[in-house]
């Protein structure tokens, strides 16, 4: 059996799609409810003659094309450690059950799901237990693991849990699934190339963080200007400094700064796409078409291309061998 095609659900801007394409597969359709994300998706990827399924809750599976792998980065707000942790009580947390319905009714050989690391410990482990039981009920053996993008070819500290499922009647021992080997981290300077100097407003916000009770007396703005090559991240009341790596990109994060030649720059949406593994040619297609603010948000919601490529190759090797 060959794994050649995939259905891209909760597709966002197509980080999962691109990763699987790089692993040698092709898309047969995609689904997302965000019109802004779908616009970016269509600018980046060739979706000519490809069906778009708006809302996965309304998908009639008899109308789906045949496919080999279901990929989905299902909504994570309700499982995140920084979210409200409502889990299944929030409607977005129910998406996993709609994915299970699609699996049950179409029975592809395998699937790949992604979510925030907090899902593993949500509700003292009960949430992930229910998810695994549901996926098992609809006919799949499943393994999961938390991986960080930092270990797979981009200098971003993004931790996500990945679920790999294989249809039971293929009679594969899921415990034999081999997770991808780690790869060397490229230099951060390869990604910070957009040259957007921090605005006066952004520097005023930085000053606010430097003066708050948590950070008062630690640094001045001039001290920051001398931190060559460092990443400065402002969040909540905290200020964190990183060397050679970028903190996790998030949909609501726009406070990431970096220093080069004593100039403070602010991370752009273009750079965020690169840090998510999108090649420059893809980022170039949307740089002047989508606002920087939306690109930052969309990159923060995306899957890391490099990780998905390696997982796609591992899944192909496992199912096809």
What features would you describe in this structure?
By secondary structure, this protein is an alpha/beta fold. The protein has ten helices and twelve strands. The chain has helices at residues 15-22, 35-44, 95-106, 126-137, 200-211, 221-225, 269-275, 280-287, 292-301, 305-320, and strands at residues 5-9, 26-31, 69-72, 110-116, 140-148, 156-157, 159-167, 230-235, 238-243, 246-247, 256-260, 263-266.
Question: Which descriptors would you attach to this protein?
Answer:
321 residues, alpha/beta, four-stranded antiparallel β-sheet, 10 helices, 12 strands, 31% helix
In short:
The chain has 321 residues and is α/β, with parallel strands linked by helices. The chain is built from 10 helices and 12 strands.
Number-wise, the strands total 12
Strand order of the largest sheet: 2-1-3-4-7-5
Helix/strand/pairing class, anyone? alpha/beta
SSE succession: EHEHEHEHEEEHHEEEEEHHHH
Which term fits the overall shape? elongated
Helix content: 25-40%
């Amino acid at each position: 059996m060959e794994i050649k095609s995939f259905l891209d659900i909760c597709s966002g801007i197509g980080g999962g799609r691109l990763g699987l394409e790089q692993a040698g597969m092709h898309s047969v359709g995609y689904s997302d409810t965000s019109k802004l994300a779908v616009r970016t998706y269509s600018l980046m990827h060739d979706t000519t003659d490809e069906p778009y399924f708006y809302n996965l809750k309304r998908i009639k599976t008899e109308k789906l094309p045949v496919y080999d792998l279901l990929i989905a980065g299902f909504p994570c707000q309700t499982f995140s450690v920084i979210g409200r942790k409502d889990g299944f009580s929030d409607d977005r947390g129910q998406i996993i059950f709609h994915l299970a319905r699609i699996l049950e009714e179409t029975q592809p050989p395998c699937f790949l799901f992604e979510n925030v690391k907090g899902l593993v410990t949500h509700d003292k482990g009960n949430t992930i237990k229910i998810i695994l039981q549901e996926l098992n009920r609809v006919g799949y053996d499943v393994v999961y693991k938390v991986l960080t993008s930092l270990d797979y070819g981009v200098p971003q500290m993004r931790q996500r849990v990945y679920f790999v499922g294989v249809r039971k009647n293929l009679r594969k021992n899921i415990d034999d699934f081999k997770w991808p080997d780690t790869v060397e981290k490229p230099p951060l300077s390869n990604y910070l190339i957009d040259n957007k100097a921090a605005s006066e407003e952004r520097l005023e916000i930085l000053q606010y963080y430097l003066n708050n009770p948590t950070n008062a007396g630690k640094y001045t703005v001039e001290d920051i200007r001398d931190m060559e090559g460092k990443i400065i991240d402002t969040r909540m009341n905290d200020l964190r400094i990183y060397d050679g790596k970028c903190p996790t990109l998030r949909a609501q994060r726009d406070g990431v700064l970096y220093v080069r030649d004593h100039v403070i720059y602010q991370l752009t949406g273009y750079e965020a796409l690169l840090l998510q593994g999108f090649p420059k040619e893809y980022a170039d297609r949307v740089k002047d078409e989508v606002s920087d603010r939306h690109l930052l948000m969309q990159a923060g919601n995306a899957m890391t291309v490099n990780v998905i490529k390696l997982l796609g190759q591992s899944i192909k090797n496992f199912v096809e061998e």
